[in-house]
Amino acid sequence: MLYLGCALAAGGVLLYKLHGLREAPSATLVAVCLCTGFPMLAFIAAAPSLYTRIGRASGVPDLATLLVYGFITCFSGSAQVLASLWSAEVRHPAEAWEAARPRVIRRLAVFATALSLMTALFAYAACTGALTGGPHPLDFDTFYSTVPTVVVFQFVYQAGFAYALLGVSRACRRHAAHLTDREPERTALRTGVLLISRGCRVALGYSTCKLLAISAAATGGGTTWDVLSTVVGPFFASAGAMLIAAGFAYPAVQAWAGRRRDLLALRPLWLVAADADRHLLLDPLPPATRRQVAVRDLRWRISRCITEIRDAQLAMRIWEDPLTADIARHHARRLKYSAERVEAAASAAALLGAIRTRNAALDNLLYTARTRALSPQALAEAVTATLTQGLGTAAPRRPLRLAATPRGGQRAELDQLILIARALESRPVTMALRQSLRERTGHGR
């Protein structure tokens, strides 16, 4: 169950990374997918139940050992590729492949040679009858420690695995230091890289235990050290694999959680935008339950929300009253809001006030239509004229000072809109809407 649990964890990380690879292909993501996919296959094949079935189906009782060690050797090669990409001194990640390609090719050639040698040694041992008896999913290493071919097979595998773990651990520490110096805001990625480094160091305990147990058994130590091979070594391997999987998953999970928080924070403003004009929405407004449990395509959902909110702000601009925004600014400054929150309160008050004014104008128009018994065509023309005119000349002729689209890309724009969303029910906005209504209706005199 321990092996299957590790395989399940690696499989979950792999699925998420494959989704990211589809959205933004890169050599680094390909290497990450390979580094999670090969251990997943190794842990599946190492599970005793499947190990036995593979041997029974193939006629070679311990064939699964070659599969497990082969998958781990492929992981070692992929890990070396990832280490080379992370170690490349480039300004942009897209340039990493070109910078690291010669080193990647050399290291892949080393591990391809090791895998070929392991396959040949295992095939020779199987063909010469050295691998006799039933399957040995847990004690293969020590059971065949007196067979020279199998011992060489073991040492080639363990040497390649330990070399890869040491290389990846060093590369991760250097990459984490690079992130600290040049991209200090990427704390989640730095934490994930350090988790991978620690996982590699923990997994080194697996190779150490295996080599000690094999050496002891080969020199006549009997089964005294078998516990290192059958219990302690697999524990180090599983713990290291879980840490490595956590390191790959942590930045992605943190990014997903951050996007979900942003989407939920943006929802109130997006619902206001939907109230402004449902025709601005790309899709019909989903039920509240579906909005709360949205977990997929968050980046696309956020982009869509931003676009629809901006469209609503633009559509409501003709109904905005600068007086409402100025009152909100006044109250926000009295409450010692920061400059960004002051402008967010002004924008929120202006949008809500514009929607309120537009709705009141349409209500008055419908009341007039009923009292005067206007025909449908006349009513439609009146509605079109009202929506086109907006406040018209009734509004003060002053330029609006609402927050414009900020520089800094979508992140800066998203942060601004979240501030506006949080300001919708704030005290300055509530007071501005109440006071501007009194001013416009004449009750404030």
UniProtKB/TrEMBL annotation:
Matches recorded under Pfam families: DUF6545 (PF20182)
Answer whether the UniProt record assigns the keyword Zinc to this protein.
no
Q: Which organism is it from?
A: Streptomyces albireticuli
The answer to keyword Membrane applying to this record is yes
Q: Which residue range or ranges hold the DUF6545 domain?
A: 255-363
Q: What is this protein called?
A: DUF6545 domain-containing protein
| Bilayer-spanning residue ranges | 27-46, 66-87, 108-131, 143-166, 203-225, 231-253
* Alphabetical keyword list: Membrane, Transmembrane, Transmembrane helix
